[in-house]
């Protein structure tokens, strides 16, 4: 049975899993959900009377396949592609996984510290999904309101994401939710909401965070993305393929003729991205079953090495 019509998904499952629907407990549920979306299965909470289904989640850092098309999102995170929007006319590589990589996520934390790009990214993800799922206690000290960018289109415009990539991302959110016992009907609601907001090309401005008002939210901007029935394509710039910041990590993705730069981590000058590193090699289709924690271990190996990382989803 899913959440009743008069109760939000966040409130319902916080109460179902942790009894008390407090801001702290809502933050815990969102941390478990988001961390699993990012790195795949890494934990099953032990809650008396609650049996979690055996749903394996590869996570968005693992390779996958959607309708026969290979998907590899890792180059957007590990510095392979310069796809972060910092207000210029092209993307730059920014290290958003600079504070422990997957290791703190496996300990139910966003990062090792509180001043890193990684901490900013993960806490913004917690806040954004908390708003999307209707967490009624959000905005208190134990679970701050989302304070990131208002327009997801602006954040992701230099990623040039296509339908397979966005579908894979949305599938991982659904699998992660299901792994914590969210009913199929509610998984479908969440998937439909994410698709309508982010996976329709040229969609009109929509208010996701009420206080931020209507904003362009589409992240799927490639030509193969389904056109919104209320398309306002004139509101969007032409899609720009991200430049290659690191040819080894990019693995054939991106525009190799474009010179990419990396934004310095502490406000210093940008520099041409030249470093190299290893690539996680796990492959999976949405719903496939790698060993639990395999994607997390692969991500930890890549990210703990100190390699650069490009923009991450939903900053």
Please give a handful of descriptors for the protein shown.
mainly alpha; 315 residues; 6 strands; disordered C terminus; two-stranded antiparallel sheet; 9 helices; single chain
User: What is the alpha-carbon Rg in Å?
Assistant: 18 Å
What is the residue-mean pLDDT, rounded to a whole number?
83
Question: Alpha-carbon distance between the termini?
Answer: 32 Å
What share of the residues does DSSP label as strand, in percent?
under 5%
Low-confidence stretches: 264-315
Order of helices and strands: HHEEEHHHHHEHEEH
- The total beta strand count reads 6
Strand order of the largest sheet: 1-2
Q: Enumerate how many helices there are, as a single number.
A: 9
> How would a crystallographer describe the biggest sheet?
2 strands, antiparallel
Structural class: mainly alpha
Give an account of the 3D structure:
The protein is 31% helix and 4% strand. It is mainly alpha-helical and 315 residues long. The strands form 3 sheets. It has a two-stranded antiparallel sheet. A hairpin with an 8-residue loop joins strand 5 and strand 6 (271-272). It is globular and about 55 Å long. The protein starts with 8 loop residues before the first helix and ends in a 12-residue tail after the last helix. Mean pLDDT is 83; it is low at 264-315.
Secondary structure: elements and pairs:
Elements: H1 9-18, H2 23-39, E1 64-66, E2 69-71, E3 81-82, H3 102-105, H4 117-132, H5 152-156, H6 163-179, H7 184-198, E4 243-244, H8 247-250, E5 261-262, E6 271-272, H9 294-303
Antiparallel strand pairs: 1-2, 3-4, 5-6
């Amino acid at each position: 049975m899913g959440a009743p019509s008069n109760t939000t998904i966040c409130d319902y499952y916080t109460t179902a899993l942790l009894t008390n629907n407090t801001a702290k407990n809502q933050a815990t549920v969102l941390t478990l959900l988001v961390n699993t979306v990012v790195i795949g299965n890494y934990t099953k909470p032990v809650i008396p009377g609650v049996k979690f289904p055996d749903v394996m989640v590869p996570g968005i850092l693992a390779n996958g396949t959607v309708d026969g098309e290979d998907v590899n999102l890792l180059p957007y995170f590990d510095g392979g592609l310069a796809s972060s929007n910092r207000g210029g006319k092209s993307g730059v590589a920014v290290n958003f996984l600079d504070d422990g990589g997957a290791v703190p996520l496996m300990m139910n934390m966003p990062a090792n510290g509180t001043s890193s790009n990684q901490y900013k990214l993960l806490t913004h993800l917690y806040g954004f999904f908390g708003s999307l799922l209707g967490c009624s206690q959000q905005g208190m000290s134990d679970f701050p309101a989302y304070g990131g960018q208002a327009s997801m289109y602006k954040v992701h415009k230099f990623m040039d994401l296509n339908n397979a990539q966005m579908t894979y991302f949305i599938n991982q959110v659904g699998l992660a939710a299901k792994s914590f016992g969210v009913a199929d009907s509610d998984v479908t609601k969440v998937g439909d909401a994410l698709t309508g907001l982010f996976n329709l090309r040229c969609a009109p401005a929509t208010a996701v965070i009420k206080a931020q008002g209507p904003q362009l939210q589409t992240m799927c901007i490639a030509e193969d993305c389904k056109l919104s029935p209320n398309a306002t394509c004139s509101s969007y710039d032409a899609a720009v393929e991200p430049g290659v910041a690191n040819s080894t990590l990019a693995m054939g993705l991106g525009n190799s003729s474009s010179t990419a730069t990396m934004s310095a981590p502490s406000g210093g000058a940008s520099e041409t991205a030249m470093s190299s590193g290893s690539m996680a090699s796990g492959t999976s289709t949405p719903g496939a079953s790698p060993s639990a924690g395999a994607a997390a271990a692969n991500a930890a190996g890549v990210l703990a090495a100190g390699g650069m990382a490009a923009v991450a989803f939903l900053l």
